Amino acid sequence: MTVFRRAVELPVSADQAWAWHAREGAFERLHPPLFGLSTPPDQGGLEDGAVRHLHVHLGPLRFRWRARHEDVQPGRRFVDVQETGLFRSWRHQHDFEPLSADRCRMVDRVDYELPLGALGRLFGGGEVRRRLERLFSHRHRRTVADLVRWGDGHRLRVAVSGSSGFVGSNLVPFLQAAGCEVFRLVRHEPRRDDELHWDVRKGPRPEDLSGLDAVIHLAGAGVADRRWTRRRKELLRDSRVPATRALCEAAARAESPPSRLIVASAIGWYDPHAGDRVQDESTSPVSNFLGDLCRDWEDACDPAREAGLSVANLRIGLVLGRGGGVLGKLLPAAQLGVAGPLGDGRQWASWIALDDVLGLVAWLLREGREVEGPVNAVAPTPLRLGEMVNELGDVLRRPTVLPVPAFALRLLVGRELADGLLLSGPRVVPSRALDAGFRFRTPDIAEALRTELSLGHRTDT
């Protein structure tokens, strides 16, 4: 039997740390799609005998991992024991040791035995140990960051549209683990108690929004997913402008309307051909397809504003996160060592780490409630796309010397999409968030990549 142990101090009491782990969403926050692990929905609670499931992906192979909770001592301990999985045996004990009224130490101890006895230890022991180091480094950093953002939890009632998208699917468990009651706005007939039906043309029922603290609107077709044909442009507009207006009208008509609306927008607002000129929330929209779309998208919030509701428009940049966003597109080629810049690589990339997007939403729900209108969701350190690709290669220790020629991109996705989004980019900074006191967790691109890819940090031991 091999023993792995790792401890971390948490900025909350033992009872509060235990409560965070017991909430819906925490299990998913601790097991993102890293290391070939993913979590199916509808996991059980944290009580003796409850069962947890993981999907394990090792190249083309797929496995199910089933673990059972036991020795659950609220505020102090719980244990996960493997019932079926890759190990011959696995027992993971979580202890919460009080240090003071507002601090504790969390200790993770894993007792495991590899299959195939001595042969398994010889050929797999070192790799398993390295993966456990990475996994628990990631888990502890995420736990500390989430607890710093939320403290002992906040019982907000929040509705989220676009909850199946890249940002939305990460935001929902983030809010749930914080203690929020989250309702998903869905277009199909509701199948669960936490789903609310809405029609993108007619909006949700006003009574479904009544009594909520906030609505977070993220829905919209992917801008860079396909060539910009006339029909695709119509879909991009129809999935944003009418839907946003209908949602805001419904919120305004609610008997007890939500006091806070956070509505997604994009840095497509800004001129991608402005060279090195820095652009922020005071900059006027560019006159092109994306600029006009973003302007109309934000103007569609007027019914809510006119009704006196507080509205923030989150102009989201290039999101770095495993499983989607710009990193999801760059990572496969980078891992194979065949990545390179798009065109000459000198276009600006106004990026933001996924967890900083979530942190910005949390801040807008709490400390930043007085901030209304446009808020740039970008890191304060934009860089050129070629530099971003090189940083990714450095983090992965892979070469990045194979550029994608501009003419090839234009042939692949069309000239308008290539020139307006992929081969150009605005240099955008988050002036309003910084001026209002928001602190970015990972403003450094290398640290953000290491965090999102869970590759450990230079200061880790």
Summarize the structure in words.
The protein is an alpha/beta fold and 461 residues long. The protein has 16 helices and 21 strands. An eight-stranded mixed sheet has the order 11-10-9-8-12-13-15-19, with helices on both faces. Strands 1-7-6-5-4-3-2 form a seven-stranded antiparallel sheet. Strand 5 and strand 6 (89-100) form a beta hairpin. The longest helix has 34 residues, at 117-150. It is globular and about 65 Å long. The relative contact order is 0.10.
What is Rg? Answer: 23 Å
Spatial strand order of the main sheet: 11-10-9-8-12-13-15-19
| Basic shape | globular
Task: Please state roughly what percent of the residues sit in beta strands, choosing from under 5%, 5-15%, 15-25%, 25-35%, 35-45% or over 45%.
Answer: 25-35%
Distance between the termini: 23 Å
* DSSP summary, beta strand count: 21
Largest sheet: 8 strands, mixed
- Low-confidence stretches at least 5 residues in length (pLDDT < 50)? none
Counting DSSP H or I runs of 4 or more residues, the number of helices is: 16
Helix content: 25-40%
Class per helix and strand makeup: alpha/beta
Overall residue-averaged pLDDT value:
91
Secondary structure layout plus pairing:
Layout: E1 2-10, H1 14-22, H2 26-30, E2 37-38, E3 51-58, E4 61-73, E5 77-84, E6 89-100, E7 103-113, H3 117-150, E8 157-161, H4 166-177, E9 181-186, E10 195-199, E11 203-204, H5 206-209, E12 214-217, H6 230-238, H7 241-253, E13 260-266, E14 278-279, H8 289-299, H9 302-306, E15 310-316, E16 318-321, H10 325-335, E17 348-349, E18 351-353, H11 354-365, E19 373-377, E20 383-384, H12 385-396, H13 406-413, H14 415-422, E21 427-428, H15 431-435, H16 445-452
Parallel strand pairs: 8-9, 8-12, 9-10, 12-13, 13-15, 14-21, 15-19, 16-18
Antiparallel strand pairs: 1-7, 2-3, 3-4, 4-5, 5-6, 6-7, 10-11, 17-20
Helix pairs in contact: 4-11, 7-8, 10-12, 12-16, 13-14
